[in-house]
Amino acid sequence: MMTSGPTHRGVALARVVLLGLALVACADPSPGLPDASRPGADDAAADAPPGADAAVDAAVDAAVDAAADAAVDAQIAACTAPMADCDLDGVTCETATDTSSLHCGACGHSCGVLACGSSLCVPDQIGNGGAWRAEVAAGLLYIIRINAFPISNSVLTRTDLATTTSTSVTLDAVPGGLAVDATHVYYAVTTSVPTVVHRVVRRAHGAALTTPPELVFTAPVRPERLAIRDGVLYWIGDTPSVAYRRPFTAATSDPGTPLVSAEPAGQQLIDLAVTSTHVFWIKLVGDLREIREVPITGGAATTVVTGPIDSSVAKLDATSAALYWADARGTSGGGGVYRYVPGAAPVRVVTSSTLIGSVHVPEGASVMYLGEPLFAQQRVFRAPALGGAITLLAPHGANADFAGSDAQYLYTVEHPLNGGGVFRVAR
């Protein structure tokens, strides 16, 4: 039996000693004498405050509990890593936190159904092939895959995350954006027979993929990115590059309201994120990337930040209140993860020398990111959303992106031409 520091016997002895002292303190000062014969008995009884006996009992109980807690704390502190006293019995360092899936890396950190190795939850591959677009909602993972560049065909795959079983349908179209809400998946497609038509369609989560999708609207250009916030669909187009806002109640012939006039020709818009007040996208301008913003009610677009095209502002994500993005320039170049609230200056919440390729911010207190000195072998990290200590969550493969998350897992996909996989990572 492995023991270190105070044992259960030591805890019990501490309780006995303290209880004995308490009994001595509370003992009758004049044993064997009638109460009336004790000097000052009546005066002492009169002077004793109400509840004095209860106060003494409470003090004794508190002292005993404190001694027991201190003994257990000392036992836990005395365990030699990776062993730990996760059952808090104060007797043994019984848990190997380098391999325990229930206590991986620390007591209480569960990997769920995943294995634990070297004190990290090991990502589980739940699918094959890279992703063009990917989203998670309602216990389902949706992925659009492409055949090659230039794109001429695509496949939509839906994976039940509880069972990891997948079904697919060929779209026979060039794909655009993908978005999900609690009830539907939405995606953009462009068909060219008999004429070129750009559409956004949707399917209910419970509908078979073999059934025809429902038309949401036709668009003047292919919607390259879709996003949903507060029951409204936002999208950015191909050429000309325009950001749109469209209520779901609009007619199928209505693509929505342009939020800003078209950006200059040749300036491609990539990525899209929406808070409760603003719409953001990345614009390629020559050798630079710019994050642009516009209020959700429309107006003049302004630049949030500008950086080199090959290494900065690699990925956007947003909560209802703030925009986050990854900057891959390393510590000396301003690399890390940034948080931006419209009207304030951007704040770097993660300073990192790694090359950060993707960022994901569930509505909550943490920001997740994929980073590594070389993209060939990434790792998954977690940090407080407002900045703080960084936690390594798991190793990962090459050139990956976040698809989304649920309460227990993150879901990642690898680049569409890498022939990689789909993974889940414990949060």
Task: Give me a quick take on this structure.
The protein is mostly beta strands. The protein is 12% helix and 41% strand.
Beta-strand portion reads 35-45%
How many beta-strand runs?
Answer: 32
- Largest sheet features: 4 strands, antiparallel
Question: Radius of gyration from the CA trace?
Answer: 31 Å
- What structural category arises from helix and sheet content? mainly beta
User: Helical proportion?
Assistant: 10-25%
First-residue to last-residue Cα separation: 33 Å
How do the strands of the widest beta sheet line up side by side? Answer: 5-32-31-30
What order do the helices and strands come in, and which of them pair?
Blueprint: H1 8-26, H2 41-47, H3 52-78, E1 83-84, E2 95-96, E3 116-117, E4 120-121, E5 124-128, E6 133-137, E7 140-146, E8 154-160, E9 165-170, E10 174-180, E11 184-191, E12 197-204, E13 214-219, E14 225-229, E15 232-236, E16 243-247, E17 257-258, E18 269-274, E19 278-285, E20 288-295, E21 302-308, E22 315-318, E23 323-327, E24 336-340, E25 347-351, E26 355-360, E27 366-372, E28 379-384, E29 391-395, E30 400-405, E31 409-414, E32 421-426
Antiparallel strand pairs: 1-2, 3-4, 5-32, 6-7, 7-8, 8-9, 10-11, 11-12, 12-13, 14-15, 15-16, 16-17, 18-19, 19-20, 20-21, 22-23, 23-24, 24-25, 26-27, 27-28, 28-29, 30-31, 31-32
Helix pairs in contact: 1-3
